[in-house]
Amino acid sequence: MEAGSNTYQKGEVKVEEIIKSNEKRTNTKTITRNTRSAKSTSSSDTTVTDTTNIDSSRNTTSKKTANNSRTTKTKKTTSSADSPKREDMLPIRLQNVSKLVGAHVSITGGVQNSILNSLAIGANAFALFLRNQRTWKSTPLDPKVITAFRENCIENNYQPNCILPHGSYLINLGNPDKTKREKSYEAFLEDLRRCESLGIERYNFHPGSSVGGCSTEQSITYIAECINKAHQETNNVICVIENMAGSGYVIGSKFKELADIISRVNDKDRVGVCIDTCHAFAAGYDLRTSKAYEKTMEKFSNIVGFKYLKGMHLNDSLTDLGSNRDRHANIGKGYMGLEPFRLIMNDDRLNGIPLILETPTEQGDEYQKEIELLYELVGKSDLSQVKLPDDFVQGQQVKGNNSGKRIQSSILDFGSKKKKKDDSTDED
Ligand SMILES: [Zn+2]
Ligand SMILES: [Zn+2]
């Protein structure tokens, strides 16, 4: 997604909205929650009028990967006095899974709400902003908020390895202008300190841009110098560099550039990368077939190395391979299609790291549906085995149907030209 647009605002999911939408959709009470293995053999398990005892249809002894149905099993509430509790309206969250799938969620009302918003979509991982990402100003975190965040994580079993905060869009550590770079560094350091106070171990940020004012090489050196300095001023947070789509003077669209930053960082234990699938695809790394996927992953392995992979952003692309444009599409509905995500969900090298959706949301429940869809892909050796939602059409957002148009128009077009005059980068 692109800075300056309000796509992120729209994309942010609020727990109350989800609950309301669940209430509206079903007018029923969810009777299973926070349990996996809720699979039913019924073909109509998305209907909401089932009044049978769903517990009896649960196969609680099934194997871990055999059972990925996360259908929100519901039961009609007959008594008005038996009004559903908020917890009961939450979708099923799969437990003990090797793939930690989640989304970028809202912090409206305080960072502690990110956990509630993650529960509302059945997420096993989440991303968040640590403050208003579009201004330099920030107020210190309230100690009560810090406590609430930590408590919410513990209570709901969100471990540090499933949290991947996203840095401010304004930060450009590769800026050749010393004053601007120092201002970016201060914001970067502030973000890292926030992570540490919240108990967060990974911090995802955009490497930066030379803004056409110096060589790529020099800009990479500036970025690495900032990371080294920040390491000395903080204790343990890992700086996770995101790959970029490749527009303008932005650093990091090539795996080699990510590796070059890492090579200049002294403490290799505290640096990592986050691969955004849309950005990789837009930068020319194909993932659409098993052969292409393996080739790309082999390149990544040889140039960067999987030990540095600390998270992924799962996004389809509204533009074609090598477009250098950063425009996210919903999973399976863009130029990439569903196959790359099936390959990802069955790739053991990607276990135990946050896999974060940053896809367009219009209805408010897209993240929940996409998390369900992604888990449905686990254990499937080809797409014909996958039970797709009724309204699902691969690539539909690039074929110009209504849904695609609606999403396209919600994203500001920054284009892919060498154009940025200021020091901000424009993807997320
Ligand atoms: Zn993006
Ligand atoms: Zn990003």
UniProtKB/TrEMBL annotation:
Its cofactor is Zn(2+). PROSITE patterns: AP_NUCLEASE_F2_1, AP_NUCLEASE_F2_2, AP_NUCLEASE_F2_3, AP_NUCLEASE_F2_4. The keyword Hydrolase applies. Signal peptide: none annotated. SMART domains: AP2Ec. One of its GO terms (cellular component) is nucleus. InterPro entries: AP_endonuc_2 (IPR001719), AP_endonuc_F2_Zn_BS (IPR018246), Xyl_isomerase-like_sf (IPR036237), Xyl_isomerase-like_TIM-brl (IPR013022). One of its GO terms (molecular function) is DNA binding. Residues 120-376 form the Xylose isomerase-like TIM barrel domain. Keywords: DNA damage, DNA repair, Hydrolase, Metal-binding, Zinc. Residues 28-81 have a biased composition (Low complexity). CDD domains: AP2Ec. Residues 394-411 have a biased composition (Polar residues). GO terms for biological process: base-excision repair. Pfam families: AP_endonuc_2. Residues 1-90, 394-428 are annotated as: Disordered. The keyword rRNA-binding does not apply. Residues 11-26 have a biased composition (Basic and acidic residues). Belongs to the AP endonuclease 2 family. This is Apurinic-apyrimidinic endonuclease 1.
